[in-house]
Design brief:
Number of strands: 22
Bound molecules: zinc ion
Distance between the termini: 26 Å
Helix content: 25-40%
Strand order of the largest sheet: 6-5-4-3-2-1-22
Radius of gyration: 22 Å
Structural class: alpha/beta
Number of helices: 13
Amino acid sequence: MPCNHNSSTVVKFINLTRRTEIGANSYYVEIGRHRLVLDCGMHPKNTGEDALPNLKTIADREIEAILISHAHQDHIGTLPVAMRRFPGARVLMLEATAEVGNVLLHNSVNVMTRQREEIGEMSYPLFTHREVDRAWERWRRCPLRQRISIAGERTPQRERDALTFEFFDAGHVLGSAGILLRAEDKTVFYTGDVNFDDQTIMQSALFPEERIDILIMECTRGDHAKPPGWTRAGEERRLAEALGSAFERGACVLIPVFALGKTQELVAMLYKFRRQRLLPEFPIYIGGLSSKFTDIYDRRAHMTRRQLPRLQLMREAAPFILNDETVRDAPVRAGRIYVLSSGMMIPKTLSNVFARRLIENPQHSIFFVGYANPESPAGLLRDAGRGSEVALDPDKPAQRVLCNIEQFQFSAHGTREALVEYAKRVSPKKILLVHGDPPAVEWMRTTLSAHLPASDVILPAPGMELDL
Ligand SMILES: [Zn+2]
Ligand SMILES: [Zn+2]
């Protein structure tokens, strides 16, 4: 049947994230008769109702499928809640994301159960271990780069209103994907979290280069210009040198990181430093949750598109493992590196507890290596000058910052320059900017409007239905 150029598929969009921020990321997309949800995150810092996406906005709609871009908390953290609200929805993600997501959600049940006591949040846990197990059984594991119908069939029929999706490697963390939705006369591409540069383990994203009608794009680094002359190799050298001088000073070094992604990147980098004999022998410490994710990186090494495909981190970098108890009394000794989560140093996490043992001592160092919300404990500490007071945990007294603090740029997110270049290559009719703090999305909006005058650049206000 010849296609009818007058007809066009209607696309609707609702930003279900409660504010313009990197929070409980979630988006409703309607394409023709298909109603979908992209990602279902949990806010990394807020608690209770405020930690959830605004699912009430779409409560009366029948959701056909929920697609998950990757297994970071801010993208998958409330998936069991969404599955309870939309029991008929098919849940689709990459196999690696299913494997990591299962571990993450079980850990989240433990964290919420503890928080119920600590902060008196009576709605916690939002779901139970049994519910996570049952949810996990219902997830449909998909391969990369295969066109699949939204009904889950590998060879989609050529129905007039057939909709397909395809996962593209996003180069951000293990199992991260961009999601391309193709309707008969419209394409919608959601970047998820993306990196267009190689990291130590992850290779740069391989995204669609075809023309895209609607691009839903992350903006994490929109408010940071790429520093002139920055290269990852140069930054690695700078880190090795900083570790060397810290060791000479008799320091132990804490590096707060996300358990998934940044931990494995850092441990691989430290392994390289040892191999290259850039530093004297040093022990590495990581947390229990991080070690579970590292096991998955190792198990999947041979089937992942990555650098150092033969490197088995747990065996060859051989990190020691700390838990909630041992992190309180592990001796703070010179020449040790603690690569601990959480990256934002949320109270009661390993990095927060350990940092409180270091910050009043000028001998020791804390190195920041990635994104932290400016109001999170990591953001506060990073921006505090030496000698100022910081309260890393509201339940504990503030402390004077006397330790050495340094910052390095090993972001798992694309530079804003690379995001703009990508948008220029696929020249979308509409660009929706998501997953960024207000200054970040604002810079992206101004810059993209200037570079792509024919594109409609939109900041989707939370909860507002857009007709695209
Ligand atoms: Zn992410
Ligand atoms: Zn994210």
